Every structure is written in C-alpha cells, then in structure tokens.
Amino acid sequence: MEGADAPILAGLADLVLLHAGVFARIAAAIAVLPGMGERVVPPKVKLGLALGLTLVVAPLVHDVAGPPPRTPLGLAALLAAEAAAGLVIGVAFRLLVIALQIAGAVAAQSVGIAQLFGGVTAESEPSIATFLMLGGIALAMAAGMHVALVAGLAELYVVLPYGLAPSGDDLASWGVARVGGTFALGLSLALPFVAVGFAYNLALGALSRAMPQLLVALVGAPLIVALGLAVLWLALPELFGRWLDVAALVFAAPLSARP
C-alpha cells in the first residue's frame, strides 16, 4: 500500500514546494510594489494577496519550473533565489512611482509648496509628491497593473528561471540604467514647474532691483504658490499621460534596461 501511495505523496510534495517557491517570489514582489506594498496596507492584506496570486501563477509556471530540491539547504537556496527575483520585479514597478515622487519634490522646491498636508510614506515628502504618487498608483491600477503583474510574473520565469538568482553583473547594469532613467523621467515631468520657478525668481530679482524698499519676498510668496497650483492643474493631464506611456512599457517588459 505504501508503495502505491509513494508516487502520489512525491507528486504532492513537489506541488507544495513549487507553490512555496512561487510564493517567495510573489511575496517579495508585493513587499515593494506600488499600491499593494504601501505601509498603509495591513500585513494580512498583503499576505492574502500573495497567497491568492500564488494560486493563480503556480499552475502557469508548472511546466517551466525545474525539479524541486530534495535537501533543506537546496530548499533554502531556492527560496532565497526566488525572493531575490521577486524583489527585482517589485523594484522595477516601484521605480515608476519613485519617478513621480522625484517630479513632485522638484516641483515643490521650484514653486515653494512644501509640507502642506503631510504624506503617506515613511519619509517626509512634499504634498505634490504625495499627490502625484497616489494619483499614479490609482491610474496604474485602473490601467491594469495587477493584471500585468500576474502575466509578467508568469512570463518572467523564462527570463529569471525558477530557482536561479539574478546574475550580479546583469542586475548591476540593469539597476544603474533603470535608476538613471527614473531620475531622468522625474526631472522631465517637473520641467513646467522648474520653468515657472525660474521665471518667477528672475522677475522677482528685477523687481527687487527696481524697488529696493518693497518686500518682494512677502508680496511674491502667495503669487508663486498660486502659479504652482495653476501649473499643476494645467500640466496634470499631460504629466500623467506621459507617465502612463512609460508605465505601459514597464508593464510589457519589467526587466528591460530602460522603459
């Protein structure tokens, strides 16, 4: 009887180990994903999302996954490799939101809008950065980021095979290129605010030279805040449109060197 049950038990053990490896990758990705990985999301919700996505993704990668390890050391190495791959995937999506935070920080410095309402992140950030981040997450979810995540996690088992950690050289070159692209995207999105801030300071300097007795900083502070909010209102559709174009490229190929 035991001999007849052995293949069934072995197959069940392999299935459990496969789900454990997939869970390690998905849980690591969710820990840093925008929206799902925010600190305001309860850990139980994150755990439920990871378990649910594991049940969806595991059957899709059953054929491409290699044989499971047979030793505790091998299992630990597999889980570590899968967690590292998941972090890379999650960071690829997280950098999209970081670009919006960079744009918001640069915009706030340019138009004089700082901590008006606080933030939802662990670090203090300007209110514009918080607004852009939340808006970007909402648009990403509406654009199907969660669907792209499931499809991408299944397809990425071809690029990052099951149980193999990302190569250090490839990871370093990818990280440098992607971080550089993130800063470039953030700064380009903030260019309208930089232009308005430059023009304001230039005009303020000319007015100060023409009327030294006038407290130009006191007079100009409400003006630059109003100009900043007006530019935010006017530039927001184009800003989010450009960002969504880049986000679509990342959804299609999360591990490309540049979006």
From TrEMBL:
Keywords: Cell membrane, Cell projection, Cilium, Flagellum, Membrane, Transmembrane, Transmembrane helix. GO terms for biological process: protein targeting. It is found in: Cell membrane. GO terms for cellular component: plasma membrane. The chain crosses the membrane at residues 12-33, 45-61, 73-92, 131-160, 180-202, 214-234. The keyword Lyase does not apply. Signal peptide: none annotated. The keyword Transmembrane helix applies. It is a multi-pass membrane protein. Belongs to the FliR/MopE/SpaR family. This is Flagellar biosynthetic protein FliR. The lineage of its organism: Bacteria, Pseudomonadati, Pseudomonadota, Alphaproteobacteria, Rhodobacterales.
